[in-house]
Description:
By secondary structure, this protein is of the alpha/beta class. 30% of the residues lie in helices and 22% in strands. It has helices at 26-31, 95-100, 104-117, 133-144, 156-166, 179-186, 200-207, 222-225, 244-248, 264-277, 293-299; strands at residues 13-22, 51-58, 68-71, 80-82, 87-88, 124-128, 148-153, 170-173, 191-196, 210-218, 251-254, 284-288, 308-312. Helix 11 links the parallel strand 12 (284-288) and strand 13. The two termini are 24 Å apart. The model has no long low-confidence stretch (mean pLDDT 95). The protein binds NADP nicotinamide-adenine-dinucleotide phosphate (NAP). NADP nicotinamide-adenine-dinucleotide phosphate (NAP) binds at residues 24-26, 104-105, 108, 129, 131-135, 153-154, 158, 197-198, 219-223, 226, 255-257, 300-301, 303, 305, 309. NADP nicotinamide-adenine-dinucleotide phosphate (NAP) is lined by residues 24-26, 104-105, 108, 129, 131-135, 153-154, 158, 197-198, 219-223, 226, 255-257, 300-301, 303, 305, 309.
Amino acid sequence: MAEAPVTAPGPGQLLLKTLYLEFSPAQKSWMENVAPYRAPVSIGDVMPGNAAAVVVESGDSGFAPGDLVTGPFGWQEFPTVPASEAVGVPDGVPAASALSVLGVSGKTAYGGLINVGKPRAGDTVLVSGAAGAVGAIVGQIAKIAGCRVIGIAGGPDKCLWLTETVGYDEAIDYRADDFKARLKALCPNGVDIFFDNVGGEILNLALARLARGARVVICGGVARLNMDARDPSKMIEGPRNYFNVVFTGATIQGFLVYDFQDQFPDIVRQLTAWLRTGQLVSHEDIRTGFENAPATLRGIFEGANQGKQMLKVAEAN
Ligand SMILES: NC(=O)c1ccc[n+]([C@@H]2O[C@H](COP(=O)([O-])OP(=O)(O)OC[C@H]3O[C@@H](n4cnc5c(N)ncnc54)[C@H](OP(=O)(O)O)[C@@H]3O)[C@@H](O)[C@H]2O)c1
């Protein structure tokens, strides 16, 4: 933790007060320099991450003090940023929901499920990491699309939360002894879409349950991220059940949310509309205290979060 003077905004810049930080497993890979889509974090750099903030002082005609914005402002309490990085929070949407549902998690859930998974009414959709940020949104969008939705999460409390609060039809605890049997019992006709946030053994078992023509959407591999990426000998091996893709004519496709950049305005419009009608609910797990940012990031690798992990840094006023 370092202190530095607050910088007044120059032309085209904004001085912000950070309200919330958001956390994603990908932040670990940014520090390990294994994410090819962005420059590595160096020792001494501000830790990268998305935030919601309020404009304190504006050097840009598009923003005024008091405006709520989101963007990649990093772990800073009073960042001075280019106005081009800031996106206004739509009226009537809380800043935290904008950071989650209208941010990377929501765009990932929508783009991955709709563009790659291509859901049809009546499909059985299986989601791993279902009680996390992306998973809780994928489940709701799949329900809107008319699918039967089954979530996989760690522990009975998260599973109950998925069915009672988030709207999943069924939930399976992958830590329970009967995980494999429940997966088989709940998918008697197979899985049409497997939206995978986890990888490893969960991906392997899901591949054994594919329906004809299934779509396997590789969004994340948090089980892999728990490994030490600097030691390839400790990395998770590929799935043993991969050949079922041949028997079922299934496709396995990975994606990065940035693949859908051209569609972001339309995706955000749709997600905002669902938030406003209440068809989509933002589920946030909010801790407090700027000094708790490193521990909060570590927590998501231990399954500490239910919904989108965030940290409240300050009040808007
Ligand atoms: N492709 C893209 O463009 C893109 C964009 C954003 C995110 N992602 C990826 O999507 C995934 C989900 O991200 P998120 O932000 O929604 O995270 P998240 O699900 O909110 O948090 C991680 C969750 O993963 C589970 N987990 C942790 N270690 C695990 C392990 N060893 N095995 C099984 N589950 C484990 C934990 O839930 P349990 O208690 O249920 O285990 C934890 O709560 C991540 O892999 C992330 O990198 C991809």
